[in-house]
Fold this protein.
Amino acid sequence: MNSRDDKNEELAPHGKATITFEQGGVDEVSVVPWTQMIPRRLARKVGLTKKWATLFVVLAGLFTTSATITILVVSLETIATDLNSSVSVLNWSITGPMLAFGVVGPAYGKIGDLYGHKKVYVYGLLFAGIFAGLTAFAWDATSMVVFRLLSATAGSATGPAAMAYVNRLFEPNERVRPLGLWSFVTAGAPVLGVVIGGPVISAIGWRMIFVVQAPLLLGAALLAWYLLPQTTRSKSVKFDVKGSVTLGFGATLFLLTINRGHSWGWTSPAILIFGVVSLLSLWLFIRTERVAEAPLMPLHWLRTPNIILPIAIQALINFAYMGGFIVVPQMLERGLGYSASHVGWLIIARPLTFSITAPLASFFTMRAGERKSGVIGACAVIASMLILSSLASGSSDLLVVLGLGLSGIGFGIAAPALTALVANAVDDETIGVAGAMQQLLSQMGAVLGSTVMISVHEMTVGSTTVVRSYGIALLFGAGTATVAALLATRLTPTDRSADALANT
């Protein structure tokens, strides 16, 4: 890899036109034959520039690792029967990768900032592909959960690396659009995984998913090896081992406490121990960061509104977004008696509206600013939760689609704007870590949302109807989205005036 990256004067094969990646923040030049990508004439016609081609390469790998995190959700019963296990045990094949994607991200972000995001991205895809292939040959539930966890742990490197490429290739005033695509992949791929999971597994079986995923990931790693430019690397900076360990340990135990509390019992010894140890570990992380030579998370971020507020807002919105993602299908199937296929067709409304809105919302944000996008996005999620909480027997499919669609629209408007604010507020040297921190808090919001809302349903179902208990749970999502909307009013939008751009 290094030989190809470092030899900038290396020529392409005779007679082939080449493109050269040489963008702001990139210190090495990669020479790539156009014939390995797409014809030059077609590139001109569709307006595909070099930096957009790079973006599509990194997002393709990110999508491939993210989509399979949730693809098994609707088929756990089938897999449990196949592996002679239970759904509760195999649920860790979903929860484990979700936790891994959030918890180890900050460490990958720091490693990428220190040693280059290209290496982190390529090796992440490589090992994700290897463990995905091993998952196809899992012989019992334990082996499957372990291989899934290892694959997700490796694949989570693609998230902060992809965001780092976005922020190094695009100027601050033009980042909203590519970050809209980044947000779609990070948030939309897991949702699409659930939508397509049932039909795909019914058609080809769950093992074939990983038989197909493994070569895709390995091929993406090879493509990235040859096509991606290297990023700048910090020099003479130590890796914050203590910070990485204490943050990872504390966040994992905290999410485990929340995730398992309702099934193990909130007052059970294991939950109480996990909760106390997680808080002690997170406290130790803060103490460690105060004296670290190269802290994993600079503590001044906690005092910077355009860093801590967007991260908190996105976590709160994701609480409602992912909580509703878990609650609504159960509400429709168990409470209103919809068939699985009927529910499947309805829930497509949310990823569909998100996939359309996230890229297009950048045009609105460029004109109106991140503050308005954050407020409007949060308000759309509030409206979504209120509509879905009002569903009852006899409610039309149109009302269900409206409620689900508003969630996708709201998150599609808010997420790219919030991500762009964070990216514009940190130094180029810490962009990878900032993106990973945002991913971690967003994942924590998702796990909290799904767990808390299901717990609310279980606590209230005995005193009311099944549908109403789910409705009460959705009102909790409306509450967190309301807090997000209020916090969004305190954001400072990026100054895109001509004078500001001239001074950058």
User: Anything to note?
Assistant: Residues 23 and 169 are 6 Å apart (CA to CA). Confidence is low (pLDDT under 50) at residues 1-47, 498-504. Strands lie at 18-21, 30-33.
